[in-house]
Amino acid sequence: MGASFAVATFLAVSGYDITPVLLLFGIAIALWYLQAGPGVGVGKRFHVLGGNRQGPGVPGVSFSDIGGQEVAKRELLEALEFVVNADKVKALGIRPLRGILLTGPPGTGKTLLAKAAASYAGSVFLAASGSEFVEMYAGVGAQRVRQLFNMARTRAARERRGSAMIFIDEIEVLGGKRGKHTSHLEYDQTLNQLLVEMDGINPYDDIRLLVIGATNRADLLDPALLRPGRFDRVVQVNLPDREGRLHILRIHTKGKPLAEDVDLEEIARGTFGFSGAHLENLVNEAAILAMRQGKSAIGAKEFRDAIDKVIMGEKLDRRPSRADLERIAFHEVGHALASEVLRPGSVSTITVTSRGKALGYTRQTQEEDLCLYTRDWLEDQLAVLLGGAVAEEIRFGTRSTGAANDFEQALEIARRLVGSGMSQLGVVNVDELPRQLYHETMSSIMKGQERRVRQILESRKDTLVEASAALLENEKIDGDEFREMLRAAGRRASPGGQALT
């Protein structure tokens, strides 16, 4: 740089026009800035992450910090034996794994599992997102892939570690199926470079590399990326079951002051479908609610309110008119009454408090998580969904738009009944069914369950009116209180004074 400046000064003093030279020099600086400038321009957006560290480049996360993913942890630990016990693997002539793909819904802990794997193996950990590799400039993505692999080897050698792990989140952006992008081949070039780099991993090098990818859209990945020799193992990271949710809740409530009335097992039962991220947010929201109310401990009420907030959103300031509130109350009690009759003990909360897009809602729980759904279970759920609209019709003679979302869910269940061979048509190919026959079958299923739930509600009309009045007065009824109303109504209806079943 000094010599160039001296030459330019000499030429200018000698009377030469150095404008073209300055122009070329400016263009060179601009290209350097865009392509590979260290810490500047486009290059600034490409960086690697390490998280909390025990040492340089090693994440401070262990497998004990992750709950609800016992199967995924076992598969990862088995795969990591190739990194930890390299000498034994070499003696047996085993080819170590080059890549592990973590796939599952968002918030289930894929990034935490990758960090825990690096911590367990004592490996240098480098992380990047798939979106960081793709730019509008040709060749930048492939260059960044090479840079990431070189950086992993260099850092591991500098820190005197025998292995390094490269974690690529959102890998479907980088590794999507080739040939889909017709505008330019930058995506394909970037993927090709990743394939070349993974093929170039020598398991017997001084620095052993392991690539861990994470995605919730494995169906978008190119088949060449998933073949053996690249991503050798696919680990499913699913939503936690009840025991897993309980484990996660214990991890996130550790060190937090909990009131005596808090039952983590009950909370785990009531959070079906929650991911680890949802559960962490639930505990945090409950703590915030306790702080707002000036409490020194987090109680069961805060956890119940936090569950409602995580599912439905924050309470709204708007308040419907009295007539709308009455309709909403009958609608929600219709859901709850159908649910409690068909599945005793399933109602957790009924409320007419507006949250998010819902003017009111009924929250259900179930004793155990289900992997398979029977025809009876699906039909019961369909009847519960229709209970709100039928209750409105019984009380007011008309329905409202408040049941639109219920109908969408009910139609989806009806489609599942037909597609799973549980309808009157038996086993059929839905795509080849005549549209008229398909429509008639769907209508028959919906009308059958509508008649069923109407019979349930009309036979308990007094309870429907009583519970709706109580809901209007208190804005919320918990499940135990609602069940006591049903038992009291049963005792009044029974000649011997015993509750009806």
Layout of strands and helices, then pairs:
Blueprint: H1 2-13, H2 19-35, E1 53-55, E2 58-59, H3 70-84, H4 86-91, E3 99-103, H5 110-121, E4 124-129, H6 140-158, E5 163-169, H7 171-174, H8 186-199, E6 208-215, H9 223-226, E7 233-236, H10 242-253, H11 264-269, H12 276-292, H13 300-312, H14 322-342, E8 347-351, E9 361-364, H15 375-396, H16 404-419, H17 435-458, H18 461-474, E10 476-478, H19 479-493
Parallel strand pairs: 3-6, 3-7, 4-5, 5-6
Antiparallel strand pairs: 1-2, 8-9, 8-10
Descriptive overview:
- The strands form three sheets. The chain has a five-stranded parallel sheet with strand order 4-5-6-3-7, with helices on both faces. It has a three-stranded antiparallel sheet with strand order 9-8-10. Strands 1-2 form a two-stranded antiparallel sheet.
- The chain has helices at 2-13, 19-35, 70-84, 86-91, 110-121, 140-158, 171-174, 186-199, 223-226, 242-253, 264-269, 276-292, 300-312, 322-342, 375-396, 404-419, 435-458, 461-474, 479-493; strands spanning 53-55, 58-59, 99-103, 124-129, 163-169, 208-215, 233-236, 347-351, 361-364, 476-478.
- It has 501 residues and is α/β, with parallel strands linked by helices.
- Residues 37-47, 49-56 and 497-501 have low confidence and may be disordered.
- α14 (322-342) runs antiparallel to α15, α14 (322-342) packs across α18 and α15 packs antiparallel against α16.
- The chain has four domains: 2-35; 44-236, Rossmann fold, CATH 3.40.50; 242-312, Orthogonal Bundle (Helicase, Ruva Protein, domain 3), CATH 1.10.8; 322-493, Peptidase M41 (Methane Monooxygenase Hydroxylase, Chain G, domain 1, Up-down Bundle), CATH 1.20.58.
